[in-house]
Design goal:
The chain is 2% helix and 44% strand. The strands form six sheets. Strands 1-9-8-5-6 form a five-stranded mixed beta sheet, with no helix packed on it. Strands 14, 15, 17, 18 and 19 form a five-stranded antiparallel beta sheet that branches. It starts with 12 loop residues before the first strand and ends in a 10-residue tail after the last helix. Belongs to the immunoglobulin superfamily. ICAM family. Its main location: membrane.
């Protein structure tokens, strides 16, 4: 069983490098410098002391902690299955002169959405009118790194991020409001959920909704290809735009 032997020394020093080249006051180096891990996933990180006065090292953490180990200048930290949404494992080094140096490993725990879907009240809109489409993202973490991208054909219409510091999964919605134009008739619109945690194209594939096809009715268009009626008065029952096909 892991037992913490970390002691808050009076001369404790904290590294400000966070995995960058070690500072003179606290010569610690992390590899990797930061961790992005799926909830329930595993990871390892190595802490190295660059001081020739190192007496011993350890990792302080409720999960995967490593007891003070004498006579080493490098110590591995491992978690087989990440059980929490917030982790801050801390490497500490005791020097022969009684100083203690510490550094916290930045860990981001993520979860991809359960689903990404679109909602719209009506599938048919009038030209010139505004309409809204809602994108629902269910159970994603962390929300502060979530981006929602709106697409129409091969164009990105809009993107949205969220000011939410909660580390555990939450559900989010993004609403896109558009004005219908004749050229939009038949256009495919969809949304995409992306976690901005990796450089470039690294990381899991973005999750996207099904495409939604927009039907735009112009002033002289009809939802019917042809309507044959026996009475002119019946026209409004069939075509709300007043364009009628009359049997002559």
């Amino acid at each position: 069983m892991y037992t913490s032997l970390f002691v808050p020394y009076a001369k404790l020093k904290s590294s400000s490098s966070l995995g960058n080249p070690a500072s003179a006051s606290c010569p610690l180096q992390m590899s990797p410098s930061r961790v992005v891990v799926r909830f329930g996933g595993s990871f390892s990180a190595n802490c190295t002391s660059l001081s020739d006065q190192t007496d011993g090292m350890g990792w302080e953490s409720p999960y995967g902690g490593v007891d003070l180990t004498q006579g080493v200048t490098s110590l591995l930290f491992t978690i087989d299955s990440v059980p929490e949404w917030e982790l801050g494992p801390m490497c500490y080094v005791n020097s022969r002169d009684g100083d203690q140096c510490t550094e916290i490993l930045p860990v981001t725990v993520y979860k991809m959405p359960d689903s990404v879907s679109l909602r719209q009240n009506s599938t048919t809109v009038k030209e010139g009118e505004q309409f809204a489409i809602q994108c629902d993202i269910v159970n994603v973490a962390p929300a502060r790194n979530l981006s929602v991208l709106w697409h129409k054909g091969n164009k990105i219409l809009n993107s949205e991020t969220f000011d939410d510091s909660r580390p555990s999964p939450v559900s989010k919605s993004s609403v896109l409001t558009l004005t219908a134009h004749g050229g939009d008739d038949g256009a495919e619109i969809w949304c995409e959920a992306k976690l901005n945690l990796w450089p470039g194209e690294q990381g899991p594939t973005m999750m996207r909704s099904k495409s939604h096809s927009v039907t735009v009715l112009s002033e002289f268009s009809s939802p019917f290809s042809a309507i044959v009626i026996s009475s002119w008065d019946q026209c409004w029952d069939f075509n709300c735009f007043g364009v009628c096909f009359r049997d002559v």
